[in-house]
Amino acid sequence: MNTDLLVVGDGLAGSAAAIEAARMGASVALVSAAHGSSDRAQGGIAAATLPEDSPRLHALDTLAAGGDLCDPSAVAMLTSAGPGTVRWLESLGVHFDGGSAREAAHSLPRVLHLGGDQSGSTLMAFMRSAIENEPRITRYRARLKSLSVDDSCGGAIFVGGLSVHAGATVLATGGYAGLYGLTTNSRISNGKGILEAARSGARVADLEFVQFHPTVFDGAHSFLITEALRGAGAILVDDRGERFVDELLPRDQVARAVAAHRGRAFISATHLDPELLRRNFPNFMRNCRRAGIDPLRQAVPIAPAAHYTMGGVVSDLDGRSSVDGLYAAGECARTGVHGANRLASNSLLEAAAFGRRAAAAAVSAPSVPSASRSRSIAWRRGGLTVSDVGDLLDSAAGVLRTGAELKVALTRLRSGAVSGVAADAAEMAAMICAAALARPASVGAHQRQDEPAAIAS
Ligand SMILES: Cc1cc2nc3c(=O)[nH]c(=O)nc-3n(C[C@H](O)[C@H](O)[C@H](O)COP(=O)(O)OP(=O)(O)OC[C@H]3O[C@@H](n4cnc5c(N)ncnc54)[C@H](O)[C@@H]3O)c2cc1C
Q: Ligand 1 pocket by C-beta < 6 Å: which residues?
């Protein structure tokens, strides 16, 4: 089928792009496979909306979190787009809870919530109904197979035979934290869009920067345990019940302490008021009980899990990649707003603001042929499965890394992939390990244990 704009991915970035393009008069094919991270977001969206706040202060916090590796012009664009993006979402019918919260490393209250701790699913319900009201958007359910790139990107081919010819393509396929064995992401967040962009000759960067959440249930059917539980007094203990870290340190430092701790780590809320737990943490209580644990009596095993990925398709302030006709927005893009580490709640803002910008640029730009070509990769046959790839990433490219482990993992990934989904996962994981190997110093979310000259973030 033919369309003006193809958008791959219907999370917040893809939805914003599709709506923006349709409102500019373009026909849009919106293709997605399953719910990604946008539906899982719990906290909210950051924007400087209070009188005492400003985009400049928001930018300073963002730059500090990024470990000196942010692109200041991208950060300025993101943070100054904050209030306008909130108004644009409201114009679509999105209803925010009142007030702003102060969270993580934000120096002022600037995180807007929707539906309490259900921000992502509430926001996406609004976005989906806005899309239903746009007759120029046609939706498809299919998995991306490959991008159609000759001199420029002219659309994509999907598993099952759907083929879309488009004047321009916006990739909004999310990140790659779902490749890890232990992850807070959906398995659809496996970097496939980034991989296909790279195979088509697009530049990708910063794949080594993976943010880990410190408290994820360590067992079958893992689930995220909110940082608010530590805020309410829950403690982190070893198997003898001894505390080994200050629970109120920033997320990265707690993740490192849990990763460096020998033996199993647990979060204990047994000393807290049962009523408070039932009232304020119903998800935690429900998930623990489903896992066969009574959190009123037992400590809950935890481990850090891959949560958010800063790397992706290198794109400019209008989402343009290095391949003509191909744009990227949201978590799959590397715009430079996050540097080596994301400031919490900036990613929903990035998805909405850059999704709109990418669509506007894609719809208005005439296509100019580029020299990029599809890359064909020869994989030797072997025995790696997707789950083996997740285990290799957990052990070699986790919170704490060494060059030796990364090299071993890279060799295994490059020699052991079979065809299809496992080959894609192995190639994407090899790209992450190669990027981590190529950055010998510790910065932001990338921590190398074997480098004496490591820079503390
Ligand atoms: C548990 C959790 C909590 C979070 N909380 C917050 C928060 O409070 N605030 C915040 O700012 N950020 C938060 N984040 C991060 C934030 O949710 C994401 O960065 C953001 O939603 C990414 O949006 P996106 O549109 O780029 O991608 P996604 O929402 O991940 O959407 C990706 C889309 O691409 C599609 N797709 C992927 N691969 C394919 C394929 N091969 N073929 C076809 N379609 C494909 C998927 O189907 C999906 O539609 C959280 C993340 C998690 C996991």
A: 8-14, 31-34, 36-38, 40-45, 119-120, 143-144, 172-174, 184-185, 188-189, 192-193, 224, 307-308, 330-331, 345-348, 351
